[in-house]
Amino acid sequence: MKKITLFSGQTYYVSEDEADNVSQLYNQGVLVELRCGDKINPKGIESISDYVIEKWNGNEIYKEKSGRKYFMREGTKIYLGSEELKNIETIKVNDLKALN
To answer: 19: Cβ–Cβ under 8 A, 6 or more apart, which residues?
Structure first.
């Protein structure tokens, strides 16, 4: 799985071959239709990266633009301290079905 992030902040989770196709069409200046049906302009892509999630103590970790990491508990952000940050587990997602 790959994660395509646009400059607008929109994110798409796509297969490796779909990400490769988008990369190859970058310089052609054409809209690319993704398998989900959305059409994107490759020039609007900020990054294409491996899709990874981070967990701490079984909780999925999120990251603010400032870089601070947190998890959600009952609708409240719980920020991780330096000791907790040392124990974050990184999981590479190969298939969206694996998340369920």
So the answer is: 2, 4, 48
- What is the enclosing helix (H) or strand (E) of 2? strand 2-6
Our count of domains for the chain comes to 2
* Residue range 33-62, pLDDT digits in tens: 999 999 999 899 999 999 889 999 999 999
Clarify whether residues 41 and 59 are in a common domain.
no
Structure tokens at 36: 């989900």
pTM for this prediction: 0.69
Query: Under the phi-then-psi rule, with left for phi > 0, alpha for psi from -120 to 50, and beta for the rest, what region is 54?
Result: beta
φ/ψ of 7, rounded to 5, equals: -60, -25
Residues 56 and 42 occupy one common structural domain: no
Region for 4 from its dihedrals, namely left if φ exceeds 0, alpha if ψ lies in -120 to 50, beta otherwise: beta
Closest to 78 measured CA to CA, from 100, 56, 46, 45:
56
